[in-house]
Write a structure and sequence with these properties.
Blueprint (H helix, E strand, L loop, with lengths): L3 H6 L7 E4 L3 E5 L7 E7 L14 H17 L8 E3 L15 E5 L9
Antiparallel strand pairs: 1-2, 2-3, 3-5, 4-5
Bound molecules: adenosine monophosphate.
The site of adenosine monophosphate has 12 residues, from loops.
Amino acid sequence: MDCLFCKIVAKEIPAEIVYENDAVLAFRDIQPVAPTHILVIPKKHIATANAIDASDRSLMGEMFLAAKEVARLEGLSERGHRLVMNVGEGGGQSVFHIHLHVIGGRDVSWPPG
Ligand code: AMP
């Protein structure tokens, strides 16, 4: 499958991995929008949040637990940070392998752009 993030999971493309377990991988975004910008992805290929089904229930939980651990490792937990998931082209998604952005280390505003 020609998926960039599947290639990162397979270690065919390098990435700065900050956290990994059997189910998920977290690595630094190549174009960070904040001092800390990490992507949390499932190792299983799922294109978007619109493609999950009931069998992915626990895997989605793994993503949030990994995002929490990444925030702890990066020292973001106390101050707070932002978790973002862009869904589909209209939602700003550019890589079609579901991922959570962990963004922190600077002030953020709302609503997002
Ligand atoms: P999204 O626009 O929500 O699909 O987010 C995709 C993210 O993947 C963007 O923030 C990109 O900067 C990031 N990205 C693209 N290619 C790579 C790569 N090879 N390694 C790390 N991050 C990447």
